[in-house]
Amino acid sequence: MLRFIAKATQQYAESAVRNRRLTARALPLLTELISKTPQFRWKSEYLERNLNLSPARVDAIVDAVFYEKDFQREMKRTIQKLGGIDAPRFWDVYLRRSDAVLTLSDAYLEYLQLVNMALPVTGHLTDLSCGSGALSASLIISAPDRQLLAMDSNPRAAIATKRVLKHVFAFGAWDTKALDLSKPDFKLPPTDALILKDSLFLIETDEAKIQWLSHLGKFLKPGGTLLLAEPKPSLQKQGSLRAWLERVAKSATTGKYILNEFDLALFLDIQRRLFLGSAFPFSTTQELMELAKQASFEVKLVRDSLYGHYSILVLTKVEKARKEPVIRYHGDRKPTARD
Question: What is the pTM of this model?
Answer without folding.
Answer: 0.80
